Amino acid sequence: MNAGFGETSPIVIAPSTFEETYAMISLALNRSDMYQHPLIFLIDKQLAEGYKTIQESDLKTFPINRGEVVPHSPTSRDQVEKGDTYLRYQITPEGISPYAVPGQEDTLFIASSYEHDESGASNDDPKMKDAQMQKRFRKRLTFYQKEFDSETHAYEIINPQAEKFFITRGINRYNIEALIKDKPERGLIVIKIFHPFDIRLINFFQSKELQIKKLVFVEMNYEGQMERVLRNECHLTTPEREAKIHHHRKYTLYPIFIEELEQYLE
Based on CB atoms within 10 Å of each CB, which residue in 61, 66, 120, 143 is the most buried? Predict the structure, then answer.
């Protein structure tokens, strides 16, 4: 989530099943093109090296979406009136500028690590800096508006009326699902997109404040990286909420087994 500079962060997608991995990699490639933004496809070792028999009908694919590509005749665009043939970093309402493909005529531009104007030339003017920063952050809002709707969330909740929840990502969901099967008082929250963060999960915790008795973060790293993100994003740092939080962390390269988690059912 922090693999960048200049206050920008990559899109971080973390599939939790074999079927999701198959489907979401095509979505990830599409989104990298659509939003012209770095994207990290975060999977764990067990999921990457695991095996499972899957019905072909359960595998979804998505058509290629290259996003906003500049027309073949940039001279027809409004920018010609300003003397520009192609504005690679054109300031747009959605924060996404049409891009060119290699070999396309009349689409020469400069790419550097410096702040730039719409054509790509280095520019230190404060107004241009402000405009370009605003543009880049509008992409995050555009992603949120286009990707997150009533049918699509960055997380999945199993047994939302439960009193005790496990929170995890990746392949850990398989064993946790088996553990809580037929136990409606036990729930599971699986995070699938870490950035941009789906703020509706904040509302879930707020609405279930009295209902939730225990939150158990299950992850395979020493520092509790997922837990740190959710504590910050979902405001789980108040004394009342802190008292409900537990965590199970494993970093031995072995998977987390069901037997290790049974203690948290108490």
Answer: 143
